[in-house]
User: Fold these one by one.
Assistant:
Number 1:
Amino acid sequence: MFYSFMRGLVRLIIGLINGKPHYQGRENLPQGAYILVGPHRTWFDPLLYALAGSPMQFSFMAKEELFKNPVLRFILVHANAFPVNRAHPGPSAIKTPVKFLRSGQFSLIMFPSGTRHSQELKGGATVIAKMAGVPLIPTVYQGPLTFKRLFTRQRITIRFGEPIYIDRKLKLDDAGQKQIETKMLAAFDDLDQEIDPNFHYVDPATKKHAN
């Protein structure tokens, strides 16, 4: 109930200040649970991914520091988020999302780079997908990169790519991880080009420091 309420509220706010987002490739979304993976470009792209994947409900990883605030903790817990220690993730960082995915009630939104300011992929999404037996769905966001820019009504586009299935026999050593990472990066590039052949992502933080 709370998740549905929050999703509706976010949809209303985005619609009022920016207009209706454009979703492409929804036919690539499976009927069952899956993991949305994409480059992390703005603090609100997880919210937009969740809207784009509706009516599926999603769980999220969130840094454990956010759960120290009781009000924010209430919101995060009821929005299906779970805490992760980024410095020392621990077994729960894998076991919790695998449990969610296996239940079939929730899909998962993950950013393999971990943060908005890193382009290096990490292997957590691949491990979770293999253990849960669900596909990775490469996804990209193009649109405003700051909350202020949302008010310019710059077009928001989210595009889903074809599922990447993890072979149960694939060993997730360095070579195995590299194989999946290469597929994800290629998919992100293809999706960006399909939306806008001239697209080039510039980290707002980098641009700000440059000025």
Number 2:
Amino acid sequence: MSKQNAFSREDLLKCSRGELFGPGNAQLPAPNMLMIDRITHISETGGRFGKGEIVAELDIHPDLWFFACHFEGDPVMPGCLGLDAMWQLVGFHLGWLGFEGRGRALGSGEVKFFGQVLPTAKKVTYTIHIKRTINRALTLGIADGTMAVDGREIYSAEGLRVGLFTSTDSF
């Protein structure tokens, strides 16, 4: 049986409620912190490293919550939200692969911001290239990612790391 390779907004909301991968497993955040509207492609192979790829989108509307507070009179999407979306997608990929545990961002290597998302934009596209998946005492996903707004790349992150934990008591 083949795995689902695209996910709608409703699918992602199910994941945020813990209904997609089962209780105690990878979960996306609920709105407003869910920074993804759909996953248009997810695979176990492909991508720059041949180990998996995720392409996801976020529709931009001038009334998104962060534009009202970041910054008053100069609205722009906070860069940390785009970075968080990339971590969200690496964790989602681990759950989609069938690994157990709750996802936690563990860091990244180099992050670069060279553009911005304004309220006039239409769509953000995230592309994640899985570099490595480790499943030992800790399940760990390592990936590189980019974020584009209306087709123009504006962020990049290398070495995005997300772990899955069956218990976060000592984390």
Number 3:
Amino acid sequence: MQNDVYDYTQAPGTGAVQKNTVLRKTYGLLGLSFIPCAAGAFISSQTGFNLYSMFNNRWASFAIVLAFFYGMCFLIEKNRYSNVGATLLMVFTFGMGILISPLLQYSLSVSNGPQIVGIAAVMTAAIFFTMAAMARRTKANMNSLGRFLMAGAVVLMIAVVANMFFQIPALALTISAGFVLFSSLLIMWQIRTIIDGGETSHISAALTIFISIYNIFSSLLNILLALAGED
């Protein structure tokens, strides 16, 4: 494969060394990916750019967000073993920073907003480290968990679309809680898959974990805002 610079299945050494290399580089790239994400959120807040307010129709905004999200994920996966994939991941996280900026700005503007954002951030970090630790010790069947997560992704997407019609606050909270649970399990599944040798691209792994952390943080923000009576 051309530019196959990250394919550790071809690397010399033991399987354990290869898996550790993928996991180490996954964490490194994951940490790096939050820099453009923060930059995107900052630039959006400073310029007042809001993708959602550019269109009068919420369905048009939703369609554009989906097109960006799945289009970038497709391109990153297509280049999962090359430097192009890593670059596209940085572009993707920058865009995701822009998308979360309105939620962050609103959260920071309410009473106790900084505390709410801080609590959500600490809880997100705690969930990540807990699931990462559990991934190293779990004896769960990852194939079964993978099938469960696939079904869960479909259910959550249907619920998101349904709530765009009905606009039910209780359903929105349930969806947010569902995303927290789903994304937490996805982190554990992805890390365990690397440890078991089922994932050989740290770019793909970093993408999955970044999306999971992003979903956990934004969902926790929504839940905490609702509990504080600010949603």
